[in-house]
Amino acid sequence: MLTRALASTVLICVLCSCAHRAGDGKAAPAATLDPRLLAKQAELVEYDRAADARLRADAARIAGGSARDVTLPDTVVERFVLTVTNRGNRSIRRVDGGVTVYDAKTLKRLGLSTFSAAANIEPGATASVPVAIPMAAFAEGAGLLARSAGQPKNVELTLTGFGLGDGGEAGERD
Asked: How far apart are CA 109 and CA 153, in angstroms?
Protein backbone atom coordinates (compact mmCIF):
# COMPACT_ATOMS: atom_id res chain seq x y z
CA MET A 1 0.00 0.00 0.00
CA LEU A 2 2.83 2.34 0.86
CA THR A 3 4.47 1.54 -2.49
CA ARG A 4 1.35 2.60 -4.39
CA ALA A 5 1.11 5.85 -2.46
CA LEU A 6 4.78 6.58 -3.10
CA ALA A 7 4.44 5.73 -6.81
CA SER A 8 1.40 7.99 -7.20
CA THR A 9 3.22 10.82 -5.44
CA VAL A 10 6.21 10.46 -7.76
CA LEU A 11 3.87 10.41 -10.77
CA ILE A 12 2.13 13.60 -9.61
CA CYS A 13 5.50 15.31 -9.10
CA VAL A 14 6.66 14.32 -12.59
CA LEU A 15 3.44 15.57 -14.16
CA CYS A 16 3.66 18.87 -12.29
CA SER A 17 7.27 19.27 -13.38
CA CYS A 18 6.33 18.62 -17.01
CA ALA A 19 3.44 21.06 -16.79
CA HIS A 20 5.70 23.70 -15.27
CA ARG A 21 8.32 23.23 -17.99
CA ALA A 22 5.71 23.32 -20.76
CA GLY A 23 4.74 26.83 -19.75
CA ASP A 24 8.25 28.32 -19.52
CA GLY A 25 8.03 29.65 -23.08
CA LYS A 26 11.10 27.84 -24.38
CA ALA A 27 10.56 25.63 -27.37
CA ALA A 28 12.18 22.24 -27.51
CA PRO A 29 15.12 22.15 -29.91
CA ALA A 30 14.07 21.00 -33.37
CA ALA A 31 15.59 17.75 -34.52
CA THR A 32 17.69 18.23 -37.62
CA LEU A 33 18.20 15.50 -40.14
CA ASP A 34 21.49 14.69 -41.74
CA PRO A 35 21.60 16.27 -45.23
CA ARG A 36 22.82 12.95 -46.63
CA LEU A 37 19.67 11.29 -45.29
CA LEU A 38 17.48 13.98 -46.88
CA ALA A 39 19.31 13.59 -50.19
CA LYS A 40 18.84 9.81 -50.12
CA GLN A 41 15.15 10.28 -49.31
CA ALA A 42 14.70 12.60 -52.30
CA GLU A 43 16.57 10.14 -54.51
CA LEU A 44 14.33 7.24 -53.44
CA VAL A 45 11.17 9.29 -53.93
CA GLU A 46 12.26 10.16 -57.46
CA TYR A 47 13.17 6.52 -58.15
CA ASP A 48 9.69 5.40 -56.98
CA ARG A 49 7.99 8.01 -59.16
CA ALA A 50 9.99 6.95 -62.22
CA ALA A 51 9.27 3.25 -61.58
CA ASP A 52 5.56 4.01 -61.21
CA ALA A 53 5.57 5.99 -64.47
CA ARG A 54 7.30 3.08 -66.28
CA LEU A 55 4.77 0.62 -64.88
CA ARG A 56 1.85 2.76 -66.03
CA ALA A 57 3.41 3.25 -69.48
CA ASP A 58 4.00 -0.50 -69.87
CA ALA A 59 0.40 -1.22 -68.87
CA ALA A 60 -0.93 1.48 -71.23
CA ARG A 61 0.86 -0.13 -74.18
CA ILE A 62 -0.98 -3.40 -73.53
CA ALA A 63 -4.42 -2.19 -72.50
CA GLY A 64 -6.49 0.84 -71.67
CA GLY A 65 -9.68 1.15 -69.78
CA SER A 66 -12.20 2.97 -67.70
CA ALA A 67 -14.37 2.09 -64.73
CA ARG A 68 -17.85 2.96 -63.56
CA ASP A 69 -19.44 2.45 -60.19
CA VAL A 70 -22.47 0.12 -60.06
CA THR A 71 -22.76 -0.23 -56.28
CA LEU A 72 -26.29 -0.67 -54.96
CA PRO A 73 -27.50 1.08 -51.79
CA ASP A 74 -27.19 -0.80 -48.46
CA THR A 75 -24.23 -2.95 -49.42
CA VAL A 76 -20.77 -3.59 -47.95
CA VAL A 77 -19.10 -4.33 -51.28
CA GLU A 78 -18.14 -1.65 -53.79
CA ARG A 79 -18.86 -2.90 -57.33
CA PHE A 80 -17.38 -1.62 -60.57
CA VAL A 81 -17.58 -2.52 -64.24
CA LEU A 82 -14.28 -2.02 -66.04
CA THR A 83 -14.22 -1.52 -69.80
CA VAL A 84 -10.82 -2.80 -70.93
CA THR A 85 -9.40 -2.73 -74.46
CA ASN A 86 -6.63 -5.23 -75.22
CA ARG A 87 -3.97 -3.56 -77.41
CA GLY A 88 -1.53 -6.47 -77.09
CA ASN A 89 -1.14 -9.55 -79.23
CA ARG A 90 -2.02 -12.13 -76.55
CA SER A 91 -5.24 -12.75 -74.64
CA ILE A 92 -5.62 -11.07 -71.26
CA ARG A 93 -6.80 -13.50 -68.58
CA ARG A 94 -6.31 -11.32 -65.48
CA VAL A 95 -6.39 -7.58 -64.91
CA ASP A 96 -4.58 -5.95 -61.96
CA GLY A 97 -4.94 -2.35 -60.98
CA GLY A 98 -6.26 0.23 -58.63
CA VAL A 99 -9.34 2.41 -58.33
CA THR A 100 -9.76 5.81 -56.77
CA VAL A 101 -13.37 6.73 -56.02
CA TYR A 102 -14.57 10.34 -55.82
CA ASP A 103 -17.92 11.83 -54.91
CA ALA A 104 -19.49 13.04 -58.18
CA LYS A 105 -20.76 16.32 -56.70
CA THR A 106 -17.92 17.46 -54.45
CA LEU A 107 -15.06 15.52 -56.11
CA LYS A 108 -13.88 14.59 -52.61
CA ARG A 109 -11.90 11.34 -52.53
CA LEU A 110 -13.96 8.59 -50.93
CA GLY A 111 -11.63 5.64 -51.29
CA LEU A 112 -8.55 4.08 -52.84
CA SER A 113 -7.96 0.35 -53.31
CA THR A 114 -6.33 -2.26 -55.52
CA PHE A 115 -7.82 -5.31 -57.22
CA SER A 116 -7.06 -8.34 -59.33
CA ALA A 117 -9.91 -9.67 -61.49
CA ALA A 118 -10.34 -12.54 -63.90
CA ALA A 119 -10.86 -11.47 -67.50
CA ASN A 120 -11.16 -12.97 -70.96
CA ILE A 121 -10.13 -10.33 -73.47
CA GLU A 122 -8.84 -11.39 -76.87
CA PRO A 123 -6.25 -9.26 -78.74
CA GLY A 124 -7.85 -6.18 -80.25
CA ALA A 125 -11.11 -6.68 -78.36
CA THR A 126 -12.87 -4.63 -75.69
CA ALA A 127 -14.64 -6.36 -72.82
CA SER A 128 -16.45 -5.55 -69.59
CA VAL A 129 -14.84 -6.92 -66.44
CA PRO A 130 -16.83 -6.93 -63.17
CA VAL A 131 -14.86 -6.09 -60.03
CA ALA A 132 -16.08 -6.32 -56.43
CA ILE A 133 -14.01 -4.86 -53.59
CA PRO A 134 -15.11 -5.02 -49.94
CA MET A 135 -15.51 -1.48 -48.61
CA ALA A 136 -13.23 -2.30 -45.68
CA ALA A 137 -10.37 -2.91 -48.18
CA PHE A 138 -10.27 0.77 -49.14
CA ALA A 139 -7.52 2.91 -47.62
CA GLU A 140 -10.04 5.29 -46.08
CA GLY A 141 -12.12 2.45 -44.61
CA ALA A 142 -15.76 1.66 -45.23
CA GLY A 143 -17.38 4.74 -43.69
CA LEU A 144 -17.29 7.26 -46.53
CA LEU A 145 -18.11 4.67 -49.20
CA ALA A 146 -20.93 3.11 -47.18
CA ARG A 147 -22.60 6.50 -46.76
CA SER A 148 -22.37 7.13 -50.49
CA ALA A 149 -23.47 3.68 -51.69
CA GLY A 150 -25.94 4.02 -54.55
CA GLN A 151 -25.01 7.66 -55.20
CA PRO A 152 -23.16 8.89 -58.32
CA LYS A 153 -19.38 8.60 -58.13
CA ASN A 154 -16.42 9.26 -60.39
CA VAL A 155 -13.97 6.38 -60.63
CA GLU A 156 -10.35 6.70 -61.73
CA LEU A 157 -8.85 3.43 -63.00
CA THR A 158 -5.15 2.63 -63.00
CA LEU A 159 -4.12 -0.59 -64.74
CA THR A 160 -0.86 -2.00 -63.34
CA GLY A 161 -0.55 -5.54 -64.66
CA PHE A 162 -2.03 -8.39 -66.63
CA GLY A 163 -2.08 -12.15 -66.70
CA LEU A 164 -1.78 -13.24 -70.31
CA GLY A 165 -3.25 -16.18 -72.21
CA ASP A 166 -0.20 -18.40 -71.87
CA GLY A 167 0.00 -17.74 -68.12
CA GLY A 168 2.93 -15.33 -68.40
CA GLU A 169 3.14 -11.73 -67.36
CA ALA A 170 3.02 -8.83 -69.77
CA GLY A 171 6.38 -8.10 -71.36
CA GLU A 172 7.99 -5.80 -73.89
CA ARG A 173 6.82 -7.77 -76.91
CA ASP A 174 3.17 -7.26 -75.98
From this structure: 10
Other residues' Cβ atoms within 10 Å of the Cβ of residue 89 = 12
Range 103-106, long-range pairs (CB < 8 A, 24+ positions): 103/148, 103/151, 103/153, 103/154, 104/151, 104/152, 104/153, 104/154, 105/152
Q: Which CA distances in Å does 80 have to 62, 73, 88?
A: 21, 14, 23
One-letter amino acid identity for 131?
Answer: V
> How much is the pTM?
0.66
CB atoms within 10 A of CB 111: 23
Q: What is the DSSP letter of 135?
A: G
Q: pLDDT per residue over 30-89, tens digit each?
A: 568 888 888 899 999 999 999 988 888 888 888 899 999 998 888 888 999 999 999 988
Beta bridge partners of 118: 94
90-103: per-residue pLDDT in tens?
Answer: 999 999 999 999 99
